[in-house]
Design a protein that fits this description.
- The complex is a heterodimer.
- In chain A, strand 8, helix 7 and strand 9 form a beta-alpha-beta unit.
- The model of chain A has no long low-confidence stretch (mean pLDDT 95).
- Chain A has ten helices and twelve strands.
- The relative contact order of chain A is 0.13.
- Chain A is an alpha/beta fold.
- Chain A is globular and about 55 Å long.
- Helix content of chain A is 31%, strand content 20%.
- In chain A, the strands form two sheets. Chain A has a seven-stranded mixed beta sheet with strand order 2-1-3-4-6-5-10, sandwiched between helices.
- Chain B is of the alpha/beta class.
- Chain B has ten helices and five strands.
- A five-stranded parallel beta sheet of chain B has the order 1-2-3-5-4, sandwiched between helices.
- In chain B, helix 1 packs across helix 3 and helix 2 runs parallel beside helix 3.
- The longest helix of chain B is centred in the N-terminal third of the chain and has 24 residues.
- Chain B is globular and about 50 Å long.
- The two termini of chain B are 28 Å apart.
- Classes of the chains: A alpha/beta, B alpha/beta.
- At the A-B interface, helix 3 and helix 4 of A face helix 5 and helix 6 of B.
Amino acid sequence: MRNAFIEELVLAAKNGKEVALIVGDLGYRVIEPFADLFPERFFNAGIAEQNMMGLAAGMASEGVHVFAYSIANFPTFRCAEQIRNDIDYHNLPVTVVSVGGGLAYGALGYSHHAIQDYAMMRILPNMLIAAPGDPMEVRGCMRYLINSPQPSYLRLGKAGEKSVHQEIPAITPGEWLEINYNKNIVVQSENLFLTTGTTLINTHEIVGNRKEVAHFSIPMWGMKFKNNQYKKLIQWNNITTIEDHLVDGGFGSWILEILASNGGASVGLNLKGLNSKVCGMVGSQDELLLASGIFSNLLSET
Amino acid sequence: VTNSVDLIELSRAIRANSLRMVSRAKASHIASALSSADILATLYGKVMHYDSNQPNYSDRDRFILSKGHACVAVYATLAEAGFIKFEELLTYGDNESRLMNHVSHKVPGVEFSTGSLGHGLPFGAGKALVCKKAKKTWRVFVLLGDGEMDEGSNWEALMFAAHHNLNNLTMIIDCNNLQSLTTVKDTLSLEPLADKLSSFGWDCVDIDGHNFLQLEQALSYSHDLKPRAVIARTIKGKGVSFMEHSVDWHYKNPSSQELEMALAELDILK
């Protein structure tokens, strides 16, 4: 996913877009294609994330769309107030890029687990969350962001993810991307799986093209994109949200708020995500996801 | 010398309106505004290029108030410079007023909202970086407090700006020697500040922050390579004898009687 990101950024710069990349001393063997081609637009801020985000905001205030790249909690929680005040409040075109979303850096420990990042970004009024599910969605999200620069958070997995999509989907905020949905057979659908981020891939492996369950991906969302979700949600009897983030304050909670604040009590909602049990656990991403139990009874519970 | 007289009048007007605003709104931080008044008068009266009819014209010099609580001094300066009307100053702190009690980018002429300390210098460095890469000639001025230097983000930005030779960036530290509870010295010792800044790669000058000639010289100059640090030694509450050197006036607001006394000291009728 991170390679798809950098390729899209290079493409944007080649197409004459006013973009810059600033990194927090990370991105070895990822960022070089951009740094080598556009050395005047690449900056290593050093291991200093507060300054990195302030710089990004200052650069953005002069018309540059800045991508500020680091790992997991470093470009998010470490500089949360800079994102809140400098970027989001001033509505500046900075895309915070976090690599290692969810438990992608499982073996590196709790410091490197990005499992509260949606919660932080969800509470910022201007922030667009882009949590692509596969490399194709990374490209789709990047193309949207490049054409609509705004305060945004791009959550990437790591490298080597399989693509579920055959081609680059056109993505807009709040849009549902069809992964599995047989509209000829399922007229009034019973069961819907909604994913954001790379749980797209795990969920797709389980659901495949089963007719009794539909699966959609919502790669872009956030506080200002709640409109129009409700009428789509109430078409379904049972909705399961699946994310590699703590259930508290996450994607499912965003759906829950939309339903609850519109009176959609008739829709059954099952929130699948991480719980505090995985906080502090160390292991591979697969191992930790297994331990979280998110996917263990996914089909039998619906 | 004639010019200096103008700055005296300008800074007197900034102080007077700052006092009126704070008193009317029953707001805090008057002493922080008074220590910055001469710095602001010099910047807007002598040093900076701006056009109040086009607040965002591209080649303007950029000013960022990082010590956002001293906002009344900036609002008063912007009124003197023609960015906002004098009548608007009296809306300070009112419901729905643009002039909120920390400097707000919703006010014409204000580049950046602050209020939490340690945000202005990184932001200013980002602007200076873009300017330099685009080979433009405008300058960035960031005004900080000495207590604000406790914030680690400033030292991150100091390293970055020196590393990238941002000689179009000038940091002014309003060293009024007091912070929230007591002196800077008794909170977290900052001295030797000039040595620290010089060793971080900044072109540093240590001046009297109420001396217009020293201020003008210090702020007009920019080094060939290094970012510039102006340590402005000031008096918190400067210009109003009963507010000077006192932590109390970081918080207190002048009653109408105290306002009258203060304005009399500034030689201005209420």
